[in-house]
Amino acid sequence: IVTVNCARLLKADHHATNGVVHVIDKVIATTTNSIQQIIETEESLETLRAAVAASDLNSLLESEGQYTLLAPTNEAFEKIPRETLNRILGDPEALRDLLNHHILKSAMCAEAIIAGLTMETLEGTTLDVGCSGEELTLNGKPIIANKDILATNGVVHFVNELLIPDSAKTLFELAQESEVSKSTDLFRQAGLSSHLT
């Protein structure tokens, strides 16, 4: 699937006497803002804006290149426990891993996403990007709230859930989500849960 500034290429290579015509499915608008400038001007990305500034990712998101930012909205940050959010925001390494987990290494418009596509993030992990009917999905969940916000250095999709990589979790959080959750209960009952957090 080929896209031009997120417009889908419908018919290619119509040769004319004075050139060639490609038919696309929408009007291409002028794009002037970088991904960083979009973050700075969008009200629903206020928490993300603060997180990007704290992790020194501003220069990356305004540099030349082609990235996809899966931008967590304020709502996405509010969904996770305040204690977990404060821990990540207070840990520069965990925060950088969290944000890099939301940045894909290439520009990926919604029109070019097909079911079962696996994309590598800047953090080095992978995300399953796909579609279910008309909805885009991340790791099987339809959490993309707004898509195809074009930037000079890529594309932004707004997501309404935070994607927390394992590297930004404590041992306790990892264990709770796995097959050893009963063991963590025993640690807690024994008064040893602080070692896992």
From TrEMBL:
Any GO CC annotation of this UniProt entry: extracellular matrix
Start and end residues of each FAS1 domain: 1-28, 32-163
N-terminal signal peptide: none
GO molecular-function terms, A-Z: cell adhesion molecule binding
InterPro entries given in the database record: Adhesion/Biosynth-related (IPR050904), FAS1_dom_sf (IPR036378), FAS1_domain (IPR000782)
Coiled-coil portions: none
Any Pfam family: Fasciclin
GO biological process: cell adhesion; extracellular matrix organization
Name the record gives this protein: BGH3 protein
